[in-house]
Amino acid sequence: MGNPSLTESLLADAEIDNLYKRATQSQFLRLGGQGRLERVTLSEWLSQDRLYAQAYIRFIGGMISRVKMPVEAAAKGASATLQWRILTLLQGCLAGIMRELRFFEEAASSYNLDLAAAYPGEQRFGPNATTKSYIELFDSFTTKPQEESPRTLFDGLVVLWATEMAYLAAWSYADQHSGQHDAVMDFETDLDGGALRKLFIPNWTSQPFRDFVEEIRECVDAYAESQTGEENADARFVTAAAMVKKVFVLEEGFWPLIAADEVA
């Protein structure tokens, strides 16, 4: 049996595992899965997720600028193949996030959701504190690589994996509380009109999305293996662990807090 991969090692870390559970098992998700989430609360979250998605586009663009394609047209080998694979993945990320933004607009129109809903305590619409931190993280990859920013392609792949993996796990948690697999589903009494259980949860727990997250994981592990000699393995783990912890803290903060007296 070989050594564990980077992603396996990260998920085996006790601190990361604790942050992961906190990031993916919120009351917002549980209530959403049960159809007990108010439309106004869903709007507050969705409006922030839309801002996240816009910053995600710049993040992916910054990562693409860090891909080092082979100089020779006929270049082959593991390194050249991996760079092409990563570029293909990032191309898929851009296509996916564009679909997502259209999906948000269509869902908002169908279910009367407000994509410019001000967050509680805010006078006007804009990114809340957690969204601002996510935007800052994503935008740290938009400067010229190796000049104005220390961010590397490795860093970006780890961030991408952590955020998408957490998203899949979070909506899978909501799905566990949704009764989606019952023979008969009734969305008529859902407080959000059925938006989450009919559209959002199936979208973010689908097999294509699972395959996408798995491809990111494989690219992270392959890239780490290609770049890391035995003497650098510990340093790579420390760097990756710091990124993953930061993302999971942001993911936990991204879900709106729901007071006990707000639960229907």
UniProtKB/TrEMBL annotation:
SUPFAM superfamilies: Heme oxygenase-like. Transmembrane segments: none annotated. It comes from the Eukaryota. InterPro entries: Haem_Oase-like_multi-hlx (IPR016084), Polyketide-peptide_reg (IPR053261). This is Thiaminase-2/PQQC domain-containing protein. It comes from Xylaria flabelliformis.
